[in-house]
């Protein structure tokens, strides 16, 4: 009898979990807006000065940068160093003018590689944050 009660309690807790497509901290960002089509899926977040947005990206692209470029969510200049993102979700930043830039994060940590060199990994949150120098 106790085992049955424990099992029912566990099932009730599981039913209260976050809905599919949302991830830890999702309530801060609102409902994830679905974008794209493809076999791979990941969460993409954007944090500006006053707004937080969240997308559920579906793609067949190999890298996060390739997927976000194809959907028009980011834009920038490519050099020998890779893609320098200047615009995210239609919001341009110019470090020379604004003293701010778009910082790229993977699972809440500053990314070790550029967005165009970051492979899409399951259960990973990719994010651009408005960052003042």
Description:
The protein has four helices and nine strands; from the N terminus they run H-H-E-E-E-H-E-E-E-H-E-E-E. The chain is α+β, with helices and mostly antiparallel strands and 133 residues long. The chain has one domain: Ferric Hydroxamate Uptake Protein, Chain A, domain 1, CATH 2.170.130.30. The chain has a six-stranded mixed β-sheet with strand order 1-3-2-9-7-8. Strands 4-5-6 form a three-stranded antiparallel β-sheet, covered by helices on one side. The longest helix has 14 residues, at 2-15. The radius of gyration is 18 Å and the shape is globular. The relative contact order is 0.17. The model is unreliable at 1-22 (pLDDT under 50).
Features:
133 residues, alpha+beta, Ferric Hydroxamate Uptake Protein, Chain A, domain 1, 6-stranded mixed sheet, 3-stranded antiparallel sheet, 4 helices, 22% helix, globular, disordered N terminus
Low-confidence stretches: 1-22
Q: Main β-sheet, in a few words?
A: 6 strands, mixed
What is the total number of structural domains?
A: 1
The radius of gyration is: 18 Å
The coarse overall form would be globular
Structural class: alpha+beta
Please give the count of helices. 4
Strand content: 35-45%
Order of SSEs: HHEEEHEEEHEEE
CATH topology: Ferric Hydroxamate Uptake Protein, Chain A, domain 1
Q: Please identify, by name, the CATH architecture.
A: Beta Complex
The level 1 CATH classification is: Mainly Beta
**Which strand order spans the largest sheet, edge to edge or round the barrel?**
1-3-2-9-7-8
Question: Any chance you could write out the topology, listing elements then pairs?
Answer:
Elements: H1 2-15, H2 26-29, E1 33-35, E2 40-47, E3 52-59, H3 64-70, E4 74-79, E5 82-88, E6 91-92, H4 95-98, E7 100-106, E8 109-110, E9 125-132
Parallel strand pairs: 1-3, 2-9
Antiparallel strand pairs: 2-3, 4-5, 5-6, 7-8, 7-9
